[in-house]
Amino acid sequence: MNLETYRNILVKHWGYTSFKPLQEEIIKSVVAGKDTLGLMPTGGGKSLTFQVPTIASEGICLVITPLIALMKDQVNRLNSMEIKSVAIHSGMSAEEIEIALENCIYGNYKFLYVSPERISTSIFQYKVARFNLSLVAIDEAHCISQWGYDFRPSYLKIASLRDHIPDNVPFLALTATATPHVIEDIMNRLVFREKNVLRTSFGRKNISYLVRKVEDKGVYLIKTLLKVKGSGIIYVRSRKRCREVAELLLAEGISADYYHAGLPGEIRDKKQSSWTTGETRVIVSTNAFGMGIDKAEVRFVIHWEMPDSIENYFQESGRAGRDGKAAFAVLLHSPSDTGRLKDSLRKKFPPIEKIKDVYEALCNYLQVPQGSGKDNVFDFNLYDFLSKYRLPAIETFNSLQFLQREGYMEFTEEINNPSRVHFIVSRDDLYKFQVANESFDSFIKLLLRSYTGMFSEFVPVNEETLSLKSGASRDTIYQYLVKLSSYNIIKYIPGKKSALVIFSEERLLRKALFISPENYLQVKERYEVRLSSMIDYAESDNRCRSVTLLDYFGEESDRCGICDVCRKRNELDLSKYEFDMILEEIKKILSAKSVDAEELVRLAGYPEEKTVNVIRWLLDHNKLRRDDEMKLKWKS
After folding, report:
1. Helix (H) or strand (E) holding 330
2. SS3 breakdown of the chain: % helix, strand, coil, rounded to 5?
3. CA–CA separation, 233 vs 316, rounded Å?
4. pLDDT reading at 612 higher than 60
5. DSSP designation for 454
6. Are 235 and 361 found together in one domain?
7. Residue 400 and residue 45: Cα distance in Å, rounded?
8. Does residue 455 form part of some domain?
9. b or e along 531-542 (b: 16 or more beta carbons within 10 Å of the residue's beta carbon)?
10. Per the structure, how many domains does the chain have?
11. Cβ atoms 503, 373 nearer than 8 A
12. Which residue has the higher pLDDT, 208 or 589?
């Protein structure tokens, strides 16, 4: 199949006339049947690399992602384009999962989105072997690596899929952030048949990375936002700060709102929609805001505080300027920030005995008996749990994260599951029921007019919408659905919003709950290394920001010329070539011996004024030091 076919699909379904960098290469690779690791920056269009070739070929694509909200969004979008797609995640009943899997075998579906913890269930492994599978796509692939910043044990089970599917089905692993070590780990853990990495530069030439060292961040923020134009995101590290910063901006007449995971789903959706459409100019958020954002014209991303890793910072700041126009990524930094971030280590890594305390409290809260609970899914209210057992919030949350990392459980985000309806009788039997039960006839007709596909699968329904259409109260609609369910005409699952806990293992005795001290320390050390890299980025002022970021991900680059460090260097009225040549000559001279400034200018052999400017810059940026005789020496 030639590339024109794929371009026609791109135009027909997405309205784009050409692929972004790397999309075409990845498509060619997977169509050729090769296991492929695609490294694409945030906003690079990862999803099209598996959606386009799947639409062009026979069979179904299995998409593995931990992001349930993103999963639902993509399924809804594909279905709206009349591309049959379905999702399976931990918020669904066993019957819903069974029907969805059967439809993937017989129902001409093109995409099945599944959360990673579902992969190892016996029903999934039995059914997937019967799929006409064309491709396995693994989103957020860095989650498979213990060297990564977001390791999830459930990702380690993905490779076991190879035992249940044909050998010629390729794996496509996708991520926006991966260090060289993580890249190697991804391919090894997914058992790639041969090494195959396709990458585009992580560099974003249109983003100016700035670090602003300020004491009063509020004053800086107001002054800046009153001066610059356009829409943006401000990231903070706590929900309380979210609201405070938004209110500060509103008080100064700046259109702003706040967003965090603790808000009800419908309120979050409304706030995100208002920002996306431009009704709200600035959104102040925790890191809960970002996944699936489809807004190209973001002019600035400002971090009120440092994230705890370069990976997080790079991904969040990369939400600026996806339209290719000039944008800013600003990190506000004060001396106290570094201390606070280092102090967070204690809460990030609670003592092992505290983690065990949380495990026992969780099992008691969910009433899980010892020796049972494996693969069971529980609704979970974190705030009720904290209140009932009088537990500290941050320490408890991090204990749950560590139990997840050790493979004992999975802890999901809050899932907003709508009500679902599935007709379990044939059309002929339904007609007989309507004739015999006239009081239900008009309601059944309303259901069938409002929604399609209810005879073959569970379909999301909205009681409010049905109420408006019929003129009946919401409670009346609910009662109709409950009664039809009791008569075995439909299966009705009322909607609910809840976070979930899934036990990966049966409940263990405390003494059998093994958390390896070596693994604990190893994870802590890796976290400290990532934290140290982030702190170095914030505190350094002598190396191009883009060079620093790209070097972290193993990519060589020239200085950008537009970050705060490069701008200071540009003020020297020297070209990059001139600056680098003079710097290298000075380094060569001073690495051999100490000399005074006057002799250094003479020995360098370049124009005096330009050499003096470089020497001043090197002194200002702590690259040179003076010895007891006031001679200059290169500071190694």
Report:
1. strand 327-333
2. 50, 15, 35
3. 9
4. yes
5. T
6. no
7. 32
8. yes
9. bebbbebbeeee
10. 5
11. yes
12. 208
Both 347 and 457 in one domain: the answer is no
- Domain match, 23 and 104 both: yes
Q: Which among 571, 608, 573, 603 has a CA at the least distance from the CA of 590?
A: 603
**Residues 386, 473 within the same domain:** no
What residue numbers bound the domain in which 618 lies? 572-634
Amino acid occupying residue 407:
G
130-171 pLDDT, tens digit each: 999 999 999 999 999 888 777 888 899 999 999 999 999 999
* Bridging pattern class, strands 419-423 and 459-461: antiparallel
Whether the CB-CB separation of 68 and 115 falls below 8 Å is answered with yes
The pLDDT score that the predictor gives to residue 113 is 96
Check whether residue 489 and residue 505 sit in a common domain.
no
- The secondary structure of 209-276, three-state, reads EEEEECCCHHHHHHHHHHHCCCEEEEECCCHHHHHHHHHHHHHCCCCEEEECCCCCHHHHHHHHHHHH
| 227 pLDDT more than 60 | yes
Q: How far is CA 495 from CA 197, 416, 539, in A?
A: 42, 8, 48
| CATH assignment of the domain containing 616 | 1.10.10.10
Note the pLDDT of residue 377.
Answer: 85
Higher pLDDT, 266 or 364: 364
- Residue 214 CA to residue 355 CA, distance in Å, equals 37
Q: How far apart are the first and last CA of the chain?
A: 57
Same structural domain, 52 and 144: yes
Q: Which two tokens stand for residue 181?
A: 């070590």
Together in a domain, 456 and 503: no
- The torsion of the CA quartet 119, 122, 123, 124, rounded to 10 degrees, works out to 20
pLDDT in tens, 477-526: 999 999 999 999 999 999 887 788 888 889 999 989 988 888 888 888 88
We report the CATH number of the domain holding residue 293 as 3.40.50.300
DSSP state of 20: P
Helices 335-348, 517-539: crossing angle, 10 deg rounding: 170
Mean pLDDT for the stretch of residues 164-183: 92
Residue 551, amino acid? D
Residue pair 483/447 in contact (Cβ under 8 Å)? The answer is no
| pLDDT higher than 60, residue 54 | yes
Q: Assign 250 a pLDDT band (cuts: 50, 70, 90).
A: very high
Please report whether residue 260 resides in a domain.
Answer: yes
How much is the pLDDT for 477? 94
